[in-house]
Amino acid sequence: MGTIKSCRDTSKSYSNLRSPTPPPVTFSTSRFETVNGSHEFKINGYSLNKGMGIGKYIASDTFMVGGYAFAIYFYPDGKSVEDNASYVSVFIALASEGTDVRALFELTLLDQSGKENHKVHSHFERRLESGPYTLKYRGSMWGYKRYFKRTVLETSDFLKDDCLEIHCVVGVVKSHTEGPKIYSITPPPSDIGQHFGKLLESGKLTDVNFEVDGETFSAHKLVLAARSPVFRAQLFGPLKDQNTECIKVEDMEAPVFKALLHFIYWDALPDMQEIVGLNSKWASTLMSQHLLAAADRYALDRLKLLCEAKLCEDVAINTVATTLALAEQHHCFQLKAVCLKVIALPENLRAVMQTEGFEYLKESCPSVLTELLEYVARVTEHAVITCSGYGNGTVLDGSYVNGRRVRQRLY
């Protein structure tokens, strides 16, 4: 019995030596980020606003960023009396109700000569020094009383045809705190495009037909109307087509319309070479050109941007002039800049001028030739300008085929 009692006493002594169980550790993270938005404000008839008086301003339309409305205020005669109307003033103002709205700002006066020597005042670049600016109430402003001396402005490249262009960026600071999650659920990626795509492939429940270049395509009115405002007007508007048994689509080839429907249903670009039936970069580029024009025609902005990005990546000597004309006609400014820079390179210019696309460019977009000459002059002035990041501009696609000068057929 004595032995048993001794064992129990030992157990108690060990129990007293054990450390208490540590409390559970919890955590949280506070995240700060900016919700960015931009606005371009064009002032036509600048000279007509001179003399309106110190403190008088021209206001842009309001624009929303991060749930708040903002506006650009331009003071032709300056904002303050002490500046004696020698300077123009530019401010960004909070145009909606709000208290202590913290934001970063950037104001850019656009150089309209094409030299891209823009006048930029950026709060974003100084955020580590002073932090975001606080707009305390509606009407609070950030900007510059002495933004630009009037006499200098009026003889500069920022003023063209009595017009000024101001670009602003606003970054509203948002914050949220994240705590520990007590679950781990990973939702699968969205497959709505798969469902709609299979609906198109099945051909079931279609209620409208299109005849395109001798081929017939069946589709669903509601899907087309939901995706394109042009189709919505054509199918349901006051001037809708009465005969939906067969709507004839002019000035478009069948593979292009097929690719257009593929995007509308699948929300993704099709395999360009598969649709055309030709395994070459030239065929893919040609399809992208046609599809960009179709996207602009039916107001499919996302498709238009996807085609623009693909054409930027696939610039080649034998197609760049046609692509430049397309960019000018459909207002694709980034694609236009890429094409101009590629063509202006001394090692590319002569070869591009010998293509049929260059003849089409001269006939259809003569004003672009002036811009091209400016780029060429700039390249000559600076001796060498590389074209890194602008696709294969210096490579001649060996699959070039002598076809029609304007938008060669796809098959």
TrEMBL record:
Pfam families: BACK_BPM_SPOP, BTB, MATH_2
GO annotation terms (biological process): cellular response to salt stress; protein ubiquitination
Database matches in SMART domains: BTB, MATH
UniProt domain MATH: residue ranges: 36-170
Stored InterPro entries: BACK_BPM_SPOP, BPM1-6, BPM_C, BTB/POZ_dom, MATH/TRAF_dom, SKP1/BTB/POZ_sf, TRAF-like
PROSITE patterns, A to Z: BTB (PS50097), MATH (PS50144)
Residue ranges occupied by any BTB domain in the UniProt entry: 206-265
Record SUPFAM superfamilies: POZ domain, TRAF domain-like
UniProt region (Disordered), positions on chain: 1-29
Compositionally biased spans, kind Basic and acidic residues: 1-11
Pathway note: Protein modification; protein ubiquitination
Family as reported in the entry's similarity comment: Belongs to the Tdpoz family.
Known function: May act as a substrate-specific adapter of an E3 ubiquitin-protein ligase complex (CUL3-RBX1-BTB) which mediates the ubiquitination and subsequent proteasomal degradation of target proteins.
Protein name: BTB/POZ and MATH domain-containing protein 2-like
Source organism per UniProt: Cucumis sativus (Cucumber)
Lineage: Eukaryota, Viridiplantae, Streptophyta, Embryophyta, Tracheophyta
